[in-house]
Design a protein that fits this description.
By secondary structure, the chain is mainly β. The protein contains two helices and twelve strands, in the order αβββββββββββαβ. It has a twelve-stranded antiparallel β-barrel. The protein starts with 5 loop residues before the first helix and ends with a strand. It has one domain: monomeric porin ompg (Porin).
């Protein structure tokens, strides 16, 4: 597991402050394409790129000063890059250093309904993932691939609150099993606007209990928006990063003793 470079990340975050605001796509509920781990139905303008770097610190904050309240690391890292083939569709690739999980997928936004006061937006996302360096038990060596399909339902409930539901089908939630299994997962997330550029976010992923993945994944935090950037500071019991890993469940319970720190940074690149 790697360690983060805070000067690099700070430059990446602040670099957008001097740039002109990129064109926005109309008819969307959430400003960002992701909550913490769950996707929204939000897309970006055609021809734009979306770059992501995210970290989850593995020591829990409860370790206190000895581990700098979790910031001493190590970390699980995720890098992602998506390209907008249209205002409604994205093609993307992402990689997590946990078992070298490599994902290739696509996302579309296909419906806008409701009213300006109560908008409803729907989208879908699907991906295939490979665990390139898994730690498998003998007999499970050929059980490294995963896949998932998600439906994103986003609703604006008044001027300052948005709610998302993400029902998901996940193929092979636990790669250490000898045979692939199926899982049906429900993700719920919400976003409360405090100012035009500051939001409070939370999400919960309801998953079936499995060995080593017994608990639901919960996350809450603060989302900061600058021109072209989203910077999210998070507290979570889920340190796994790519969706095929997150959706299968967490190894730790959602209690303060097991909370870890994390962040997501996304940068939209317009050409």
């Amino acid at each position: 597991m790697g360690r983060c470079s805070f000067p690099t990340l700070l430059i990446l975050l602040l670099g957008g402050l001097s740039l002109a605001a990129p064109r926005r796509v109309a008819g969307q509920v959430f400003q960002s394409s992701h909550a913490a781990n769950l996707p929204t139905a939000t897309t970006i303008p055609r021809g734009n790129l979306l770059f992501e770097i995210s970290h989850r610190f593995t020591p829990p904050m409860s370790e206190g000063a000895d581990a700098l309240w979790g910031l001493d690391g190590p970390v699980i890292n995720r890098l992602g890059l998506a390209y907008a083939v249209s205002d409604r569709a994205l093609l993307g690739v992402s990689r997590s250093n946990l078992e070298d999980n490599l994902e290739i997928g696509a996302q579309v936004r296909f419906l806008e309904a409701g009213s300006p006061e109560l908008p409803l937006v729907m989208g879908a996302k699907g991906a295939v993932a490979w665990n390139m360096s898994p730690s498998l038990v003998q007999g499970a060596e050929d059980n490294e691939a995963q896949a998932y399909l998600q439906l994103m339902l986003n609703a604006g409930l008044g001027p300052n609150f948005a709610l998302g539901l993400v029902p998901t089908y996940l193929r092979n939630p636990r790669i250490r099993d000898f045979e692939a299994d199926d899982a049906f997962v429900l993700g719920i997330h919400g976003n409360l606007a405090v100012t035009p550029n500051v939001n409070i976010l939370g999400e919960w992923v309801i998953s079936e209990e499995r060995p080593g993945q017994e608990f639901d994944s919960g996350t809450f935090g603060v989302e900061l928006r600058t021109r072209g950037h989203f910077f999210k500071i998070l507290v979570t019991n889920q340190v796994r990063m790519n969706p095929s890993q997150v959706l299968g469940g967490s190894a730790t319970e959602f209690t303060p003793d097991d909370w870890s720190l994390g962040f997501n940074i996304t940068r939209r690149l317009a050409f």
